[in-house]
Amino acid sequence: MVAEKKTGVTFAQVMKDLQKGSFAPIYILSGDESYFIDRITDYILTHALPEDQRDFNQTVVFGADVTGGQVADLARRYPMMAERQVVIVKESQAMKSGLAYLEKYFEKPSPSTVLVCCHKNGAIDKRKRMYTLAQKNGAVLFESKKLYDRELPGFIETYLKGKGATIEPKAAQMMADHVGSDLSRLVSELDKILISLSEDNRRVTPEIVEREVGVSKEFNAFELRSAIVNRDVFKANQIVKYFDKNPKAGGLFRLLPLLFSFFETLMIAYYAPDKNNDSELARFLDLRSSWAAKEYKIGMRNYTGVKVMQIIRKIREVDAKSKGINNPSTDANELMQELIFFILH
């Protein structure tokens, strides 16, 4: 079965077609987030062909080792005693010569070949003729983008749901704050948690995250943000002191993107048509659940719009200082203390 032409597709849409056995003649997978590119590629490698047909009909090459002409020749071969063949080009961005031959192939791709080009570390320019040709002739052009910090809890929930488990909102935020947007590492940590769960209780709690991942339930970036949102000066200072003594638990470089993302979204929240309705506020801010909107309601009560703008400027200033700009000697912990004091006073 051959997939219809796809443009601007999501990861879920690509996987849905693949799971139905609908394979396109060409996949051009590009972007900064390698996790989704690898997931799609691995699925094709393990499902496009039965295991006993892979030796003669599955080829994996690297862009630095081949030319566009060689890839086109591989793709034009007929499968051997099989319905199709699969050709995977990993790190296709390193392929520099013979691209005209590949463009020629994109004009008329073989219906019995699944050609996958994995272009990592940046998106391709889809306006180029070779890619518009590929798209016109049934190719799937998928751009794998880095997730925003606010999207990580949703990713965690979805991943665990696919594995037959659930997670409490606080536990999901703890994981997101502690691990960050490196999805491969995040999935590795989630898999470690899944192994620890019993068959009769598949719900991940903050206590389980604390035990399995090593992040403190009380002293972590999530709790620090919560203290800042609630303007709890004592709790915030407690956590900052804990970070100073336990650098692996948290620090300035992990905290800055987290706080910037929160206050940037809080600034947008002031423009919501209905600030008092959790569901409407969550929808306006593109949050996954109304639970997440509660923090922004508290934030609007505790911080004026003017103060939030000042905080955003301060975060940018501290970020620059942390990189050595106009800062000859202040260390990261002092900068974090300076930032927290400015936010809370």
Overall description:
The protein is an alpha/beta fold and 345 residues long. The protein is 54% helix and 10% strand. The chain contains 17 helices and eight strands. Strands 1-6-2-5-4-3 form a six-stranded parallel beta sheet, with helices on both faces. The protein has a two-stranded parallel ribbon with strand order 7-8. Helix 1 (11-19) runs parallel beside helix 2, helix 11 (221-229) packs antiparallel against helix 12 and helix 12 (233-245) packs antiparallel against helix 17 (332-344). The chain is elongated, with a radius of gyration of 24 Å. It starts with 5 loop residues before the first strand and ends with a helix. The model is unreliable at 1-7 (pLDDT under 50).
Average of the residue pLDDT scores: 90
- Report the β-strand fraction as a percent range: 5-15%
Q: How many strand elements?
A: 8
Class by helix and strand content? Answer: alpha/beta
Cα distance, first to last residue? 63 Å
Please report the number of helical segments.
17
